[in-house]
Amino acid sequence: MTSTEFMTNWLREAKSLYFFLPDGPYGRPFDNMYSFQSLSAEGNSVAILLSDGIMLRFLGGITFEDRHTKLIITGFQELEFSVQGRIVSSYEGGEVTLTRF
Question: How far apart are CA 4 and CA 13, in angstroms?
Fold first, then answer.
């Protein structure tokens, strides 16, 4: 199983998700919940699409750690965080944590 297949399966098991960006939570945890829509990988980038048009696009490769209810993503060179197709912020490295329920 490839890492993108593992991540896709991990995300599909979630009934709902919330997440932390490198600079903190997006919205209020437990108040802002999202569902997994899709994951795509092309070249050296991985994009995770959540409900409400939220996309996390990791550039430069990633590493991840499965902690049962948390998926911790690191190792990327850049993260583009977009909502409804508009890039809201970008980060050079850091850690993203997806928490599933």
Answer: 14
